[in-house]
Design brief:
It is an enzyme of class 2 (transferase). One of its GO terms (cellular component) is cytoplasm. Belongs to the thiamine-phosphate synthase family. 4-amino-2-methyl-5-(diphosphooxymethyl)pyrimidine binds at residues 55-59, 87, 126, 156. The protein is α/β, with parallel strands linked by helices. It has one domain (22-227): TIM Barrel (Alpha-Beta Barrel), CATH 3.20.20.70. It has helices spanning 38-48, 63-79, 90-96, 110-117, 131-140, 165-173, 190-195, 204-207, 213-227; strands at residues 25-29, 53-56, 83-87, 100-103, 122-126, 144-148, 178-181, 199-202. Helix 1 (38-48) packs parallel to helix 2 (63-79) and helix 1 (38-48) runs parallel beside helix 9. It is globular, with a radius of gyration of 16 Å. The relative contact order is 0.17. The structure holds the ligand Cc1ncc(COP(=O)(O)OP(=O)(O)O)c(N)n1, ligand 3NM and magnesium ion. The ligand Cc1nc(C(=O)O)sc1CCOP(=O)(O)O binds next to helix 8.
Length: 230
Amino acid sequence: MSKIELDPDFSSRFDASEESRPAAQLYLISPPTYDPGFPEILKAALDAGPVAAFQLRLKGASDMEIMRAGSVIKPILAAYDVALIVNDRPDMAKELEADGVHLGQEDGDVSEARALLGHAVQIGITCHDSRHLAMQAGEQGADYIAFGSFYDTATKETVHRPDPSILGWWSTISEIPCVAIGGITPENAAPLIDAGADFLAVSGAVWNHAENPAACIRAFADLLEDRAGR
Ligand SMILES: Cc1ncc(COP(=O)(O)OP(=O)(O)O)c(N)n1
Ligand SMILES: Cc1nc(C(=O)O)sc1CCOP(=O)(O)O
Ligand SMILES: [Mg+2]
């Protein structure tokens, strides 16, 4: 994301006309707990289709567990050109030399995170269903903003339910990429892509997939390809 310095690059997405708007991409969020077998599952998933970014989100894990997990998956992600984003913790993002950090509204000051991480590291900010928060995040220098939860999700307790039109609104007023999150599956994602999501952030649909995570990644890849350029 250079703005997430990877292929593809968040910042390059908006230098073009509407007709050539880049296709939406997949932003994977980790399973809630880290299992020693996860690296092999991750590799199989990344073999199945393109992923732009991976967020390490291990709520409830100790700092040491998060750092260990981050150290193991970092070279795997690098091998697939997938950006590593650390949830909640700018300090760990710095320690891991991650590509970015994701901050919720309660996760601390954006300017402090920027001062710690510099401008080469991407900062994403949760904006729920709020146009006001999105504009504020833009003013604070966010590299992407996230709206959600678009659908019911068992991954996190959520209270906000944006309408997909917020994605289109944001795309018309800002060049900062937007991420759609919350209960997204290959079956329900099309309206979010068509509304203007630049990234689909997905956890449960992939890691709880009935067959295997790779099959779900493949299904997202097919959908994203199908909707590209519409
Ligand atoms: C891409 C993305 N969007 C939103 C969130 C949620 O962040 P937050 O509100 O801080 O909640 P937690 O994930 O920390 O429980 C996210 N992590 N990623
Ligand atoms: C981490 C998170 N944040 C949300 C928000 O609305 O801000 S929804 C959510 C859960 C995302 O996982 P799944 O794809 O399993 O629903
Ligand atoms: Mg958070």
